[in-house]
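Predict structure. Chain length: 103.
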Amino acid sequence: MFRATNTAAPGGNGPGPASQAVPPGSDFDFRVPGVRIFTDYTNPGSPVAGLGYPGQGFGTDDGPEDGPQYNCDNGTSTTTWTHGTNRTTQVSGWVPLCNLVRL
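Prediction complete.
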């Protein structure tokens, strides 16, 4: 199981979103249950390859890429997407950074 070790977001009580600088090989975790792992970052309507949950971990292998704006449920949005693999399910795809927390 992976554990997030980042600090709380300013003014908040929980982990903040991942920073915009994401070198390949970075380790993250999913910020909320049911994060969609997309097959194509250029189209948020693309098929969903799978879902990610806190504690599963997400390792990056490509990105970040600038794509369409995505609105996360915490009220933030991003145009930065990163490609990687869910460490538990081995599902690979693109995730908007506002749905990840750095480990």
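Summary: Residues 45 and 58 are 21 Å apart (CA to CA).
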